[in-house]
Amino acid sequence: MFCLAIKHFFKLTISPTRFLVTDTFQTASIKNNILYGKPVAERILNRCQNECKEYIEKYNHRPKLVAILVGGNESSKLYVRNKQRIAEHVGVDFHVINHLMHVTPSNLIDTIQDLNNDDSVDGIILQLPLPLHLIDKTEQFIDAIRSDKDVDGHTTLNNYSYRQSSSPFVTIPVVDAVKEMLLEIGEPLQGKDVVVIGRSKYVGTPLALMLSQSNITAKSDLISGATVTICHRHTPSTNLTWYCKNADIIISAVGRPKLVTYRMVKEGAIVIDVGISKSWTDKAVVSNKRFVGDVDFDEVKRIARWVTPVPGGVGAVTVACLISNLLKLARQRKQ
Predict the structure, then answer these.
(1) Which GO terms describe its biological process (predicted)?
(2) Is residue 118 annotated as part of the catalytic site, yes or no?
């Protein structure tokens, strides 16, 4: 069970296919009560495609993005494939460096430094999670990436900038993606109770910070002023259920299949699923739906007002936000 003891509150109530569209209305992303990510991603990628074309014409150089993939984590491989497909469609030069599961820390650092020193490389992705023998050095590897090539916004310098600035230059793609999905719904967060499941430095914690910020500093009044509760691995399962059942919005970013069940969701709640993992159940194999989210989607969609699917939800928007970061960094390095 998701057992843990938590009282971790933020109470800041002060307030492919082809990625080309012409005129896409907000409601195009919503079908019944399912909030799809593709139309949201399309709008971002249309802008990116135009920016990429302008960049190539101006500098005679395609923006170059390199992903480092260590081991054979299925979810990680899926994410890298999606990033490559979308990046290449936009016009980005995308490369993957595959390291075996048992790569040494020094070899991984050497790879990162080589990319740092390569002027043709505009962005570097270190695909997470890393294998177990490297996972405790994750921050060390991330901080080895030059901050002006850090498209994920994970380095200490960029992470600090994100926390301190109301408009950081590089945003964390998954946090930006959740923001875009909530903007699509178009309801103000002020006064709403939000539960974020997962407190990682790179997803859960910055998500809570964004959602609870004062509307004085928020880019949009729609995404600010919520009362946020963070649940994590030490939150007792009964407490987790209680927090979720009383939440207006649930955002899960753990990577644990069917963690959020319909019994944990009150009628009319909004459920945003950021998690993804591989499912080997007979039902998943038969329906060819091997990748699943944290939410028991088929059951939760019967009671939630809005729910995002996996795949097809936040993931596509996250990749679009990452490509947007790459183009910002590429332009900045040319100035």
Answers:
(1) tetrahydrofolate interconversion
(2) no
